[in-house]
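In the previous lecture we treated proteins in isolation. Real proteins rarely work alone, and many bind small molecules. This record shows how such a complex is specified: first the sequence, then the SMILES for zinc ion.
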Amino acid sequence: MFGIAIFFQACTEPNPDRPRLIILISIDQMRADYLDRYRAEYTGGFKELSSNGVVFSNADLNYASSETGPGHATLGTGSYPRNSGIPGNEWIDPTARKTVYCVEDSSARPVNAEGGSLSPRNLRRTGLGDWIKAADPRSKVVSVSAKDRAAILLAGKNPDKAFWYSSRSGHMVTSSYYMSRLPRWVQKFNASGWIQKNVPGAWTKLLPSSHYEATGPDELVGESDRGGNSSFPHVFTEEEKASQLLTSPYGDELVLDFAFAAVTNEQLGRGISPDLLCISLSCTDYIGHSYGPDSHEMHENLVRLDRSLGRFFDQVRNALGHDRYVIALSADHGVMPLPEFMNITSSLGKRINPRESLQPLFDSLNKVFSRGAREQKVFVDRYGFLDYQSAMKAGLDSNSFEQAIRKGLTRVDEIVEVYPRRILVVQPDENADYVNKFRRSYFSARGEDVQVQFCEYCLVTSHKVGTSHGSVYSYDTHIPILIMGAGVNAGVYSRRVHSVDVVPTLARLAGIPFPEDIDGVPLKEVLEEPPVN
Ligand SMILES: [Zn+2]
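The predicted 3D structure, ligand included, written as tokens:
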């Protein structure tokens, strides 16, 4: 086991009507406003969740590192990055000064020569899947995604199975952490020619073109031309389809078909105790990075994703019955508009290359601190680690040293604040202000000595086109939370809630105890008794 004490909250009486299958869906990079923006065009899964489920319209990550690794670890464990131990997609090991990928694990091996050395070894908390299996080892936990870090971190420490997609081969793959060989049904899926059968020659628009014109022009300044083209139709080439489908809605269709194959072949939802199926859908992220949230491509992707989710929900309902499952949908983060799109109506959008903007500042600070010394030293390195000992020798105590760094960095317009370690290690309070969001993101053993907050609408990227996420601002942190299922009353609530609240809510719905020291709390709107007729 992983040596972390678990303190379970007192369990409520098991409910005979509790769901037999919990489906936890993360849409990678789904902004909350996508639900309202194209509401009139949704006829499938988004419509069903919005009409029949509890909708939280003011849900937020409530922490600063709005990236995929922390996003899925937080959703899966109900703990902020500060406690889950996943502060970013990657971090710098403070001793070796080497980059660590959030799900790397040198002791894990590929299976069938695919899947890589990957596992949840770096995750420091248990997740919903672990709580379900602790309550009854007969419960099954399966996780699927196009992305390895999403499948792995959403599923907790010890799921039965986790699968992710190889864009090289077009296969669903895993690592030796989970199993030594792929189940026969996965081998069959991989050999089924799914891509040849289901992906056409080009991604074209599903609805008449008049629907998309309200979004603006198809061609936007700042869009990338991933796949060789930034306008419809997006033509695929036979040799590259396996990777190109990720920047189209077809990658999610593949993962959803695979997810339903898991329901059937792993007999999910058929036992006495609840099972968990985690699904992370990645194409919205790839499309958002390439074309931005205001593009025809994002509009079209959401329309097709709505239909794909609807078909999947129908399949689950037909297989299990309408009162046997609960579905929660949320996201790991949002995304910033293309800076060039913002600048059509404002001048706020900027591209900031972190290396180009920070390194000259670090260089000049090192020069200033080295004044009078025989040779120039590195007082602040390129990652943001500080040499306190050298500062002390130069006559600066640790506090004065940090303040001098802060003063030097915030001289630049694009940097609004600099948080040193002593501020970040303080226990966060209830406030949703920036410093507390940075504190909830800070895992001290995997964090630099200073964290930099860039200005709102400053896109921190080395790319000249496309957009990204990762900031503390609401365009990156405002995410959807929708939960529907047997015994859940439909309703829309504007109370501020957080992604950490999703898994304790699902655990409570299923009558599963969960550790009392997690950050999330069950959402009462989901758990209210239905009115008596
Ligand atoms: Zn993501």
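Summary for your notes: The radius of gyration is 23 Å. The chain has 22 helices and 18 strands.
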